[in-house]
Fold:
Amino acid sequence: MKVIIRETKREASIWAARHIVAAIKAKAAVTDKPFVLGLPTGSTPIDTYDEIIRMYRNGEVSFKNVVTFNMDEYVGLPVEHPESYHSFMFKYLFDHIDINPKNIHILDGNAPDLAAECENYEKAIEKAGGIDLFLGGVGEDGHLAFNEPFSSLNSRTRVMTLTYDTRVVNSRFFDNDVNQVPHQAMSVGIATVMGAKEVLVEGFGAKKARAIAAAVEGPVSQYVTLSALQYHPNGIVLIDDEAAGELKVSSYRYFKAVEQAG
Structure:
């Protein structure tokens, strides 16, 4: 696992966007197969998406040969609802780049058979050739996607019951009313994410500091599902200085030194 530390969220987000664009261009230089990109929602990746859009508008990247798979979607929330993850992705990214709508994959939280929808999602990822790079964000309790504490590290895409704490955090998008937040969501599993060739997880702000420290320095556990990234050969945790606040001084210095040496 690599840990990349930048002073601010903005600086880290720019790093992430440029890393993603570089990966897309690197694959395009050697094959005509599409780049398969996993994507998150929430407030964490918005600055990264803004920078990606800027780079696209500047002619630095095209998404015509990019296939995307989103991490999750609420169960029972209409697609057109402003807080559905369908709406989020088009608002913050897809409406602003040249991606083919047929290449966009987002779980259907209103599917008549949710279990079949999850199974077919896994099959679609496999058919696409697997995820080249999965971008993610970490929750305040260390969860990745909607893989809440004690989720199996071998889990695949499935329906998850959201903890009250997660619903409280997400209520800021629902007029601060926790009762408006759906009780369930569909989410890729930890094994789904770990199956990607590269995983880049962002964590910003002091509220994420304990989760980052537990995931990076603590044991691999079901309680902190991001900790599974310790086993990934190409796993990156990207944080700002505030999110690094609970790391040991020696850890902070080590990761800074490794990056400078590289």
Remarks:
- The mean pLDDT is 96.
